[in-house]
Structure formats: C-alpha cells, structure tokens
Amino acid sequence: MASFCTKCGTAATDDTQFCTKCGAPLGAVASAPAPPAYTPPAAYGLPAAATVQPAPTGGGSNALKIILIIVGIFVGLGILSVCAVMFGIWRVSKVVRVSSIGNGGAVSVSTPSGTMTAGSDAKVSASDLGVDLYPGATQQQGAVRVSTPGGTAVTAAYTTSDSLAKVVDFYKGKLGAGASVFQSDKSAVLTETDTNKKNSVMVTIEGQSDGTTKFSILHSTSSS
Questions:
Q1: For residue 215, is pLDDT > 90?
Q2: What is the domain count for the chain?
Q3: Is the pTM higher than 0.70?
Q4: Cβ(166)–Cβ(140) under 8 Å?
Q5: In terms of domains, do 136 and 217 share one?
Q6: Does 161 map to a domain?
Q7: CA distance 88 to 68
Q8: Distance of CA 177 to the CA centre of its chain
Q9: Domain interval for residue 106
Q10: Are residues 128 and 211 in the same domain?
Q11: Mean local confidence (pLDDT), 106-125
Q12: CA 125, CA 145: separation in Å to the nearest integer?
C-alpha cells in the first residue's frame, strides 16, 4: 500500500524508510495531542472556582464605638458644666439685690457679704473720705461706697481748675508729716495710714494738659 511523506507529500512504497525527495524518515506516526485536562462540572448556581473570602475581624467597628463613647463623654461633661454655671447664676440671683438710687443712675448692690453703691448719686462727704475736700472741686461720676463685715471703702473722683502743685500742697497739709508722698512733674500719690493700720487715706493727683487737675480719694477702714 502506497504511503506519502508526511513532510513533503512525495509518494513512497511501503518498504522505503526514507523519502526519496527530502530524506525525511517514513512511517513516523505523529504523536496525538494530549487530551485536555478533566475539569469537574461546576455546581449549579456557583462559579467554577469560587473563592471564599475570610469574614471581617470587626476591628473598624470597635474603633468607631470607642470614638463615639469618647465623644459622648465630652458632650456630657459640657452639658454638666453649663448646668453648673446656670445653677450658680440662679443661686446668685437669689441672694443679690440690685436697686436704683435717685435719678442720677446710682445703683446699690446688696449681697450676703455686704453692699456696694456706685454712680453719680453716690454722694460722699469729707467724713466719708477721711480728709477734707479740696475747696471748689467738682465731684465726677463714679463714686463708690463698699461696706462689708470686715470694713468699708469709699472712693470718689474730683476736678479743679487749680494747678497740680496747689492740690498737692493742700493735701500734704491735711494728711500731715506722716504721709508718704510720691511725686513727679505730672502726678502725685499721697498716702496716710494710722498706727493701728485700720484707717487709710490715699490721694492720687494728676495734672491735665489744659491746666486743670484731677484727683481721687480712697478711704478704707478695717474692723478687724
């Protein structure tokens, strides 16, 4: 039975081992291709190679819970602080009494620790201030009188058309040789305290550019 060269297709007899044209060996059987690997059928409704993912560990959820707890604590502390302030204001409102004096805007504040009166109607006298007032001086707004169980304090401010030197000389004479005097070209502070340190008077004097002089007097007493 005639055969053919698998390389060039030349006819050859059965007893011929090599092709007479190209010299390729005859009778070689081409190796059959390997059968494809067996792949088991996929389960119904699932992909052929399904991969199972590991379940989340839940670390992110725990961190979120901790953050929410911390935020809640801070919010709670803020609410408690506001409540404490409001309670303090309410308690103060129960013990503090504010009233007006006259028509000049003076106000009196009464607390369990004492009273304070301030304003233009809070008139003070020489006896209140512990020293004579400078002749012709005009009281300014802002006089204050404070009374507590431990003592009193009265202060008032004045102006005069006289010079700084005249006002300083006047209060040097009124406070006496025992007064402490600190003086510069434009201001002076005179202080006098009794031997028991229960009565003190301080006069602060300041010259103005227009030639006038402003001064304030602070008189404090101690009951202890």
A1: yes
A2: 2
A3: no
A4: no
A5: yes
A6: yes
A7: 30
A8: 52
A9: 77-119
A10: yes
A11: 60
A12: 11
